[in-house]
Amino acid sequence: MTADMSKLTGAYAVDALGEAERVEFEQHLAVCAECAAEVRELRETVAQLGAANPVNPPDELKSRILTTISRTRQDPPMADPMAPASRQRSDRTTGWPVRIAAAAAAVALVAAGVLGGIAWQTQQQLEQAEQQSDRAAARSAELSAIMLAADTRVVRDSNGRQQGAVLVSEQLGKAAFLGDIAPPGDEHVHQLWLIGPDGAQSAGLLEPEASGGTPRIVELTPQVSQLGVTVEPTGGSPQPTTEPIMLMTLRA
Questions:
Q1: Distances (CA, A) of 64 to 55, 57, 61, 179, 246
Q2: Spatial contact of 11 and 46, defined as CB atoms under 8 Å apart
Q3: Domain spanning 153-249: which CATH class is it, in words?
Q4: Which of the residues 82, 102, 150, 215 has an alpha carbon 20 to 30 A from that of 179?
Q5: Domain ranges across the chain
Q6: What is the DSSP track for 25-61?
């Protein structure tokens, strides 16, 4: 492996050589196992970086790299037609490090995007876990307050069709729905309703965890007399479209 040719493996791996240099380097590759092995390793690394999920690198890093490239002469000046051949070869040689630097900057930009994406995804996961923990803690505290209220009572489905109950506290003006409902099937959801003289008002969709025993806490206005659960199309409905599978009378 000659000293000059060994410097071109990186540029060749990212297709940064000119046509004449590429042909000359490929002729060298045919007889240099060491350079060929290095090119394969570099291309595998670039391929792995390219296969990663694309994420925009920080604006500061991108700006810094692009500024550096813009200040670097990418190609040697046009050779004087009357200049000796030795000078043309010299100009061509001095262009190699520039192309290698540009190729390295491009690889660094991709790598920065990948590493930045990993950090961003990890931060997102941590934030989501923290938010879920906060919601669970708030829900647990709210449920404890309802359970410990002096006037709390238990109301069950009036027809006993489903396993579930509602804890009602008039003092707090809240109710906690505790359901153990069979899954509604594909393309359907369970929807909870606050029912009063003026009709039914949605209290939200019961996600699988809520249907399986996790409480759904709702605010009770003086007009609410019943809580009902219906099976609705995915996404829910403005008004009930089916008969309630659970109906709990909170107030006479």
A1: 17, 11, 5, 57, 63
A2: no
A3: mainly beta
A4: 150
A5: 3-123, 153-249
A6: HHHHHTT-HHHHHHHHHHHHHHHHHHHSPP-PPPHHH
